[in-house]
Amino acid sequence: MEKQIKIEEKWNKAAHEYDHTVKNELNSFKGKAWLELIQQHIPQNRPLHILDVGTGPGFFAILLAGAGYRVTAIDSSQGMIEKARQNAAEAGIKADFALMDSHHLDFADDSFDLVISRNVTWTLHDPVTAYREWQRVLKPGGSLLIFDANWHLYQYDRELMDKVKQRDSEYRSQYGEPDDDYYGPKARRDESAKLLLHDQQRPAWDNGALAALGFIEISNDLHIAQRVWDEKEQLLYGANPLFMVAAKKNG
Q: pTM for the full model?
């Protein structure tokens, strides 16, 4: 519980910065690119009730509700939920937002057709418990879409760290100083803040965890960054590119 409180405090402090990022994404090619990517993996012939876990400032919620889906979005950070509500209102989008721990959902079993998340799993202190909850609220045959990256793995993998340093150097020579050094060779390993997945190879870890829970039709896409990142992001973060994990609830 103490670790979860610290995580929530961290994201409350980051809400303003992430809000700026999300607004830029919504006003760029990324909104359309993300929506097209998601729609390739969900049914198009019937209404869907979607749960957006860890919505942050509401990027997925706004995209999906704007496309006509019924969306419920949650986040454990009060600051993020406030930004999400504000952004949805400004966009004229209707979605349900709630403050909620991703590990313990206040929804009935079999409530949603799709559970989706972006850059959430790596922040969880108990991802197996979270995945079990996401499975519980999915309808039989419902889909799970996870988008994430090995954001901290370079701190534990010397070969990957070398790749990160090379890309960081190339970025600086082309664009100057990155916006921040949270991800990059200046970022230091903090064992006190380490979470379970920081040193795990993903999506292999996710595949195993989901299979153990009974998910079926588990698949990965390791090349989505080419579709949803701009050139700067692909250069700076390309050593740890985004991946997608897709799976279905048995039944």
A: 0.91
